[in-house]
């Protein structure tokens, strides 16, 4: 009787450790997995032909580097940082941004951001535009298409 009880408890424990609905992929196939939130683009102000955008990009399973971005809605997208120079905020183009498991990449107004040039007619507040992110995962190129919401100033 004692033996039967012990076996049942062991089976219950084993079942709890390996729930059937969460299969574990083989380690060899597990690469970095990206996810994003808050992808946006600002509607250009006063007919200007440039604007900025951002998103929060997280990774699990390894570090990745964001090396660039492109979109049918823009001629060019650059990666920019903001820094204080002689008491003035200045932006500067950079080659890449690193994203690690412990530190998500946050591109936003007033900080690191996407800079967009040659803005298409479809970049209108309330619409969404697709942006393709080019990434590098330890030498392996990756892409991620994100859907960015177009916002007007004040939204
Ligand atoms: Cu900029």
What does this entry look like structurally?
- The protein is mainly β and 155 residues long.
- It has 1 helix and 10 strands.
- It has one helix at residues 2-17; strands at residues 33-42, 50-60, 64-71, 74-85, 88-94, 97-99, 105-107, 113-119, 128-137, 140-151.
- The chain has a 7-stranded mixed beta barrel with strand order 1-2-8-4-3-9-10.
- A hairpin with a 2-residue loop joins strand 9 (128-137) and strand 10.
- The longest helix is centred in the N-terminal third of the chain and has 16 residues, at 2-17.
- It is globular and about 50 Å long.
- The structure holds copper (II) ion.
- The site of copper (II) ion has 5 residues, from strand 8.
Radius of gyration: 22 Å
- What is the straight-line distance between the termini? 68 Å
Report the CATH C-level class. Mainly Beta
In DSSP terms (H or I, runs of 4 or more residues), the helix count works out at: 1
Strand content: over 45%
Helix content: 10-25%
């Amino acid at each position: 009787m004692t033996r039967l009880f012990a076996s049942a408890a062991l089976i219950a424990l084993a079942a709890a450790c390996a729930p059937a609905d969460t299969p574990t992929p083989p380690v060899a196939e597990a690469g970095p997995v990206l996810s994003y939130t808050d992808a946006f683009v600002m509607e250009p102000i006063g007919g200007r032909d440039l604007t900025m955008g951002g998103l929060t990009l997280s990774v699990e399973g390894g570090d990745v580097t964001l090396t660039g971005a492109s979109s049918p809605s823009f001629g060019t997208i650059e990666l920019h940082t903001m820094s204080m120079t002689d008491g003035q905020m200045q932006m500067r183009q950079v080659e890449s941004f690193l994203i690690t498991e412990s530190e998500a990449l946050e591109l936003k107004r007033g900080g690191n951001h996407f800079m967009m040039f040659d803005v298409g007619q479809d970049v209108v507040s309330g619409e969404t535009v697709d942006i393709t992110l080019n990434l590098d995962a330890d030498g392996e190129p990756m892409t991620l298409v994100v859907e960015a919401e177009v916002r007007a100033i004040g939204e």
